[in-house]
Amino acid sequence: MKHDHAHIGAAAGLEIEEAAQGFAAVGSEARLQVVLALVRAGDPGLSVGAIQERVDMPASTLAHHIRFLAAAGLIEQEKQGRELINRANFGRMQALAHYLLSECCADLTEVKT
Fold it and tell me: In the chain, is it the N or the C terminus that has fewer CB atoms within a 10 Å radius of its CB?
């Protein structure tokens, strides 16, 4: 049985291009550090300065990584006064995990006991 690779994992609500972009976004150690800092912070999120303190990264480099993660939909940003608050997009992260796991064992024809 051949799979249409564009639709594998479609149960997760993502197409393969969207999933690849999301996985690529966390494919660098620096961006993964940023995502983990935001996951640890939970729903309140963190300002750019607070992220910088946690990941110990130059501001210009951090700004680049934040833009990349936001473009992939892994983080959401909200202006609060003069600060830009960044939050993990838990729904998007859950969809990526589900994308991988939704096809689990799909090619097995029989279950061995």
Answer: C
